[in-house]
Amino acid sequence: MTDWQWFLVDFFQALAAGLLVGGTYGLMCVGLGIIFGVMRVVNFAHGDFMMLGMYAAYYLVTGLGVLAFLGPYAAPIAGAALAGPVVFVVGWLLHRYLIAHVTGARVVTAEAEGHYAQIILTLGIALVLANGGLIVFGSQPVSVQTPLSRESWEVLQVLLNQGRTVSFLIAVAFAVALYLFLTRTSLGKALRAAADNPIAAAYVGIDVDRAHRFAFGLGVGITAVAGGLIASSQSFQPYIGFDFVIVMYAGVVLGGMGSILGAFWGGLTIGLVQQMSTLVLPYQLQNTAIFVVFLLIIFLRPQGMFGRVWERT
Amino acid sequence: MDTLRAPLRRHYAAIAAFAVAYLALGLLVRNSYYQLIMTLVLLWAAMGLSWNMLSGYSGMISFGHAAFFGLGGYTMTIAFVKWGLTPWLGIPLGMVVGVLAGIVIGLPTFRLRGHYFALSMLAYPLAMLYVFEWLGYQEVTLPMMRQAPALYAQFADQRAYTALALALTVLCMVISLHVERSRFGMSLLAIKQNEAAAAAAGVDALAWKMLAMALSAAMAAAAGGLYAVVLLVVTPQSMFGVLTSAQALIFALFGGVGVYWGPVIGAAVLVPLAETLHAELGNIVPGIQGVVYGLAIIAIILLAPEGIYWRIRDRLGAGPAARAAAVAPAPAALPPVAAPAAGSEPPSGKPLLELEGVVRTFGGLRAVDGVSLVVREGEIHGIIGPNGAGKTTLFNVVNGFLPADAGSVRFAGAEIGGLKPHRVCRRGIGRTFQVVRAFPRMSVLENVIVGAYAGAASEREAQELALAALERVGLSGGRALATAAGLTTDELRRMELARALAARPRLLLLDETLAGLAHDELEGVLDIIRQVNRDGVTVVIIEHTMHAMVKLAHHFSVLDHGKLIASGPPAEVVRNPAVIEAYLGRKWVERAQHPVA
Fold it and tell me: Do B297 and A123 touch (CB under 8 A)?
C-alpha cells in the first residue's frame, strides 16, 4: 500500500476508535448534563463518581468475583450496569447530607456566590473520594478483565476492538433508555420541569429538593455505568477522576450547558477529538488536545456559555 | 480609606510580631522534619496569599493556580540544571514567566464568569502537566553544588529555608495589606460583589483583574520556585497537579477569604495536621493528606463559609458595627451649591446627549428601534413607556453595557457609542439601576467611595467626594457606616444616587429610582433629584409613576415597542392622541379616576 492508503487506514482507524470511545464519553457527559441541567450545579466531583463506578465494576467482576458465575463475557457488562445503582446510592446520600445544604431552588436563582459554595464543596468531596479511594483501593492501576478487549473485528482493514464496540453499544442503549425515561415518564418530565424553572415547578407541586436528590443520584449513576464500561478497556487508579472532569465538562459545554441530549453528542465529539488528535500529536498529548478544544469551545461559542453579566439592569 | 480603618502601623506591628515569633520558634526547632514542616507552612501560606490576591478579592475562583506555581518551579529548576543559573536569579526568572503566563491566560479567560472561569482555570495546569511529562521532565532533581552552596541557595542548616520562606510570606502579606487598603482592593471587592454596578461606577474591571492576576501569578511562581529549592526535586504531579491548585484555594478559604491573615491561618492549621498524619499513618493510609484537605474544605463551606478569620472576628465583635463605632465620620465638606433659578420653565441649554437612529435588537426583537432624541443641558428628561418598551435597554446602550447595532450616541459633542461602561462613567454619565445594585457587604460610605474614584485623584479626595454626596442625599452620619445589606429600599435608592453623584457626573441616568417607595419617601427622593438638577446636573429618568413624573420632568419622551412615539413638554405629550392611544390609553383614564395614594 502507498503512504496515502496507509494514512487513510490510520484515519479511519482513529475515526472508529473515536466513535467507540466517544459513545462511552457521551454517556458519561449525559450524567453530568443531567446534574447541571436539573440543578445548575457544577459538580466537581463527577469524575470521582465515575472512578467509584469503575471500582464498583472492578470489585464485582474481578476483585471479589461476585459476578464470575455469569462467565467472562457477560460479567463485565453486568458489572458496569450494576455500578450504576451502587453509585446512585452513594450520590443520593451525599446529596441528602452534604450537597443539599448549598443547592436547591434558592441557589438556582441566586447570584454567583451560591455557585462558589457548590464548586468548593464538590471539590472537597472530590478530594475525599480520590484520596479515600487511594486508601481503600490502593494506588496500583487495575482494570476489569474481559476476553473481548483482546479481540477485534476487522471491517475493511479497520480493527474494531470487541470490548470497546460492546461498550459503545451498551452506552448508546443506556443513553436511549434515559432519553425515553426523561421524555415519556412522569418522573422524567418532572425532572425536566424542575430543570427548566425550579420555582414554577415548585408552584405546580413538584418537590424540587426530591427531584434534585434523584437527579444527582441518577447523574452520578449514569456516569458510573460509563466508568464501568471504560474500566474494561483501560487501567485506572483512584486519581483518574480529575483527568475526566475536563473531558466531561468539555463535552457538556460543547453540547450546550443544560441540554441533556446535547451532552451525548458533545461527549461523542470529545472522544473523536481525543482519538483523532493522535494522528498529528504524540500519544501523551491527547488530553492536552482535549483541554485546548475545551478552552476553544468556551472562548469561541459564548452563547449560553457565559454567566449572564448584565442580566437585568 | 486610612481614616476608616485601624492605622497601617498597627498592621505592620502585627505582621512583625508574627514574623519574630515564627522565626524564634524556627530557630528553636532542631528536628529537621519539623523544620521542613515549618518551611512548608510558609510556602503554602504564600501560595494561599497568591490565590487570595486574585480569587479572594475579586471573587473569580481559580482552580488553576498550580499553573503559576509549576511554571515558577520548573523555570527555576530547568535554568539551574541546563544553564547552571542560581536560584537567586532563577526564582525571579520564574516569576517573570509566571506573570507572562498570567497575562496570556488572563486576557481570554477573564471574559468568562462563574463556572466557566473556574473550569477553564483548571484546564491550564492540567494541560501543562501533560506537556511537561511529554517533554521528559517526569522528575528533575537539583544538582548539589558543594563548592559554593550559598550561591545556589543550598544550606546545610534547614533553618535558612524557613527564614527565606518567612521573608517571602511576609512580603506577600505586606503587598496584600496594601492592596486591601487601596483603591485597587476596593475596586476588586466592588467587582466581586456586583460587577455591573462597579463598571457603571467607573471601575475598569478588566484592568484591575489583570493586575491582580499578574501579582498573584508572581507570588505563586515565587512560592513554586522556593518550594523546588527546598525539596530539591520537581515532578509534573507535584507542581501542576490538581492537589496543588486545590491546596492554594483550601488554605485561603479555610483561614479566611479576602484578608491577608486568612491564608496564613489556613496553612498554619492544616499543613502541620496533614503532614503529621501523613508521617504517622502514610504507610497505612497513603492519601490521608488529601482526605484531610477535602474534609477541611467541606466543613468550612458548611459551617463557616467565609473562613476561620471572619468567624473569630465576628465572635470578638469586631465586625463592621464595632468598626463603625470606633470611627467618627470626617466632617463633610459640601461643595459650593450653585443655585440657579428653579423655574418651572424648561431649560433650553445646549444639547448634552444626542441619540440618532439608535437600534438594538435581541435576536428578532427590536428592543430599541431607531430612537433619536436630544437631552438638553440642565433639563430633567423623563422617559416613559409601557413595560418592554425598551427604556432600560436604551440606558444600557447609552452607558455602554450593550453596544448599539446601529445609530450614534453623542455626549457633549463626542461620540460615545461603543465605549466600555467605566469609560462612559468617566466621561461624566452616572446611572442607577431598576433593581438597586449595591455592594452588599461594604458600608454605605465604601459603596459611594467606589463611585467617587472615577472623579478623584487621591484616596482622600474620593472620601471627601463620597461624604459630600452622602450629605446631598441625606445619608450622612451614622447611616454612612452601616453595611449596605441592611438598608431599606429608600436608603438603598439614596445610596445608589450618592454613588452616581460622587463621580461628579454631568448627566445622571435614573432607572425607576422612585419604584417601591412610599409616598413621603418618594417626595424626599424627588426633592433630591430636583436639588441635584438645580446644582447643574442634567437628569434622564425612566419612570412609571406618572403622577411624580409630571411634577418632575421638563421634557417627556415616550417609547413604545422600541420606537419613540412622542417627545415634548409634559403637558403637550400627555395630550398627544398617539400617546394616549398607544400607551396611556385606558391606564391613564383609570389613574385619573383613582388618583395614586
Answer: yes
**Residue appearing with cell numbers 473481548:** A148
Does residue A271 form part of some domain? no
- A177 lies in a domain? yes
For testing contact with chain A, the best of B242, B285, B439, B496 (most A CBs within 10 A): B242
Give A299-313 pLDDT, tens digit per residue.
776 543 333 333 333
Q: Looking at chain A, which residue has its C-alpha nearest residue B294?
A: A124
CB within 8 Å of A110: residues ≥ 6 apart: none
Contact with chain B for residue A97, Cβ under 8 A: no
Question: Tell me, what DSSP letter sits at residue B442?
Answer: S
Give the SS3 label for residue B358: strand
Separation CA B223–CA B40 (nearest Å): 10
Number of domains in chain A: 1
Q: Across the interface, do B130 and A242 touch by the CB < 8 Å criterion?
A: no
Single-letter amino acid code for the residue at B579: V
Q: Which fold has domain B351-593?
A: Rossmann fold (3.40.50)
CB contact under 8 A, B302 and A242: no
Where in the sequence is the domain holding A173, given as residue range(s)? Answer: 20-239
Confidence of residue B588 (pLDDT cuts 50, 70, 90): low
What average pLDDT is seen over chain B? 85
**Residues B384-439 pLDDT 10s:** 887 778 888 999 999 888 888 889 999 988 898 888 889 899 889 998 888 888 88
Tell whether A288 lies on the interface with B, counting CB pairs under 8 A.
yes
pLDDT score for A258: 65
* A102: chain B residues, CB-CB within 8 Å: 301-302
Q: What is the largest CA-CA distance in chain A?
A: 67
What per-residue confidence (pLDDT) applies to B325?
40
**Are A133 and B287 a contacting pair at CB < 8 A?**
yes
**Pairing state between β B555-560 and B563-568:** antiparallel
Alpha carbon of A126: minimum distance to chain B alpha carbons (Å)? 7
d(CA B112, nearest CA chain A) in Å:
6
Q: pLDDT tens, B159-182?
A: 899 999 999 999 999 999 999 888
- pLDDT beyond 90 at A198: no
